[in-house]
Design goal:
9 helices; four-stranded antiparallel β-sheet; alpha+beta; Jelly Rolls; 371 residues
Length: 371
Amino acid sequence: MVVTENGKVQAENMSDYDRKSEIQEFDDTKTGVKGLLEKGVSKIPRIFFHDQYVLEKKSVSGIPEYTIPVIDFEGLNKDAAKRKEIVDKVKFACESWGFFQIINHGIQASIMEKVIEGIREFHELETEVKKQYYSRDIKRKISFNSNFDLLQAPSANWRDSIYLNMAPDPPEPEEIPEVCRDIMIEFTKQVMKVGSFLFQLLSVALGLKPDHLEDMGCAEGLALLCHYYPMCPQPELTLGTSQHADGDFLTVLLNDQVSGLQVLHQNQWVDVPPVRGALVINIGDLLQLISNDRFFSSEHRVLANNVTPRISVACFFRSDLSASSKLYGPIEELLSEDNPPKYRATTVKDYVTYYNTKGLDGTSALLHYRI
């Protein structure tokens, strides 16, 4: 393998490289990226090479115009003036960034810490215990694997994940791994409350009645994707997560205190610094679609590192996937002669299916629905 001056990766003897076989061999182990480290690898397999990103990981941070908004929700329900101030800040963040962090959101720090620890304990279980959860069956409510789009994406990411589909039809408690069972059930309840008041604020920020987005079913479904980014022996060659936008209405993200998340803002990568006790909020593709581009779904990525494992829990709000006939298009109240629909309507199930089938290939799934 050679890294050229412009940061491109050129693998030696590429004619000998059978990508499909290497992917299958990796997947068949059912041990994920962490399994590679347990085998003692010092060089990452070629399936993880991100040639377009190598040596291009600089970020612009620390100056006001490139600082992720942090919104304090203290006093949200006690003072009308404070509530309006918070709505205005949320509106600004959604229209200009698509990303913001919130503090004083109502979830206790102790609960968030237990969630991070529970997910860490799952990913650090004995291999044979984790294997029983390994699956690529998207119909399962609980599954563990490495890269949901491993078979489609041009490059694999350096991460393992456990997926929990928690609403509206949650799994039986005994289906959830014991090491994180109780805390994930409790965290789901707490996140659903946060999601509810966020959708109310987003509705008002769009000039709609507070219950508009919830009445549309935007908060009915909740899926948790719990990532474990192991230390990487060659972080300059790969990414923890490729550049992408989320295929939901809204994402509530819990991070540990390890850096790595970046958002693309004004064609510059900006670090999302860990803020103790904060939740990271970002607009998903489906909210951009129904808001007719009033709010936008920002591209973001996660860097790999060789210092310490990183853990995050992404909570994806979407409608009930089983309600497959319900169509979502630009909200009628937001349209006018000067602002016609920019997207065709779709069911959430069809959108998620298209998003997952396409994989994280560097293009937006929204383009497929644009008029």
